[in-house]
Amino acid sequence: MQSELRKKLLNAFTNNEEEYLSGQAIADVLGCSRTAVWKHIESLRKEGFELEAVRRKGYRIIGTPDKVIADEISLGLKTEDFGRSIHYEEVVETTQKVAHRLANEGAKEGTIVVAEEQSNGRGRMDRKWVSPKYTGIWLSIILRPNLPPHKAPQLTLIAAVSVVQAIEEVTGLSPEIKWPNDVLLNGKKITGILTEMQADADRIASIIMGIGINVNQSKEDYPPELQDKATSLAIEKGQKISRAELIQALLLKLENLYKIYIEKGFHPIKLLWESYAVSIGKYITARTLTGAIAGKAIGITDEGVLLLEDGEGKTHHIYSADIEIG
């Protein structure tokens, strides 16, 4: 976890992005000696930050490491709460597992767990999620909404919209959502979202939301059976993307939409989700545990349930299914 002094130092650089910070200004912010300031600056350098030091002006950060360490995420983060507490690991089994433990220990809302690699990443229905080192975003966030348990699926749709908006902003690409929470580019999957709940009978104690985004993988990073199904932002854009910048954008979009949802309900989110949905208005096959239903996807309900109209004009409510388009 980040120390409070390190957070203050990075916030100071964030709030003065184009200016130099003098040693005395940093000492005043941190409440420490000039000697201690030098030690903090050297610590940043050891972590891969490039700092320019100019006599009589001070310091400024001119380059950051290609890692998603807490310091790099904090530098430039614009949220109020989301991502203000960061638990970073080089390698974990899954970020979800760590986040569940932290939630049980009382971690506050907005706490994130982020890792460079997952050794046992998983998606919906316990499917394996390929999570190679230093290539993607493997992140879980702890939410504590004052909501009844049946509202939990709506949060997954909020996450999907947040991912799409963040990718649009950072890369200029135009992703789409396949119900309920797969984010696609050119028909291939780039993001998976896994929402898990800790709840009593009538209220949610916490939501652990896992988000995996394929950012800088090359085609060779995927096993042959996934190469025609999965892609990455770097493959589609033709250049590497800053993972820390994308995390910052994602957290800000997610925080803003979450606040709208808490204040105004699901309807504004529903309209946004439908505007990004690849399947609405198209013929799909929904494969559920009890069988397959084919028909036209006509929208989602205010609860986030998919509406499918079959060939006889009957509308089916799809709560959980694998969707095939066409």
Automatic annotation (TrEMBL):
Entry keyword set: ATP-binding, Biotin, DNA-binding, Ligase, Nucleotide-binding, Repressor, Transcription, Transcription regulation
Domain BPL/LPL catalytic: 71-262
InterPro entries associated with the record: aa-tRNA-synth_II/BPL/LPL, Bifunct_BirA, Biotin_CoA_COase_ligase, BPL_C, BPL_LPL_catalytic, HTH_11, WH-like_DNA-bd_sf, WH_DNA-bd_sf
Key word Flavoprotein present: no
Top EC category: ligase
Alphabetical list of Gene3D superfamilies matching this protein: 2.30.30.100, Bira Bifunctional Protein, Domain 2, Winged helix-like DNA-binding domain superfamily/Winged helix DNA-binding domain
Residue ranges flagged as DNA-binding region: 23-42
Domain of life: Bacteria
GO biological process, one term: protein lipoylation
Molecular functions per Gene Ontology: ATP binding; biotin--[biotin carboxyl-carrier protein] ligase activity; DNA binding; transferase activity
Catalyzed reactions: biotin + L-lysyl-[protein] + ATP = N(6)-biotinyl-L-lysyl-[protein] + AMP + diphosphate + H(+)
Record carries keyword Transmembrane helix: no
Pfam family, any one: HTH_11
Binding site for biotin: Q118, R122, G123, R124, K189
GO cellular component, one term: cytoplasm
Enzyme Commission designation: 6.3.4.15
Its job: Acts both as a biotin--[acetyl-CoA-carboxylase] ligase and a repressor.
Family named by the database record: Belongs to the biotin--protein ligase family.
HAMAP family according to UniProt: Bifunct_BirA
Protein name: Bifunctional ligase/repressor BirA
Highest classification ranks of the organism: Bacteria, Bacillati, Bacillota, Bacilli, Bacillales
Gene (name only): birA
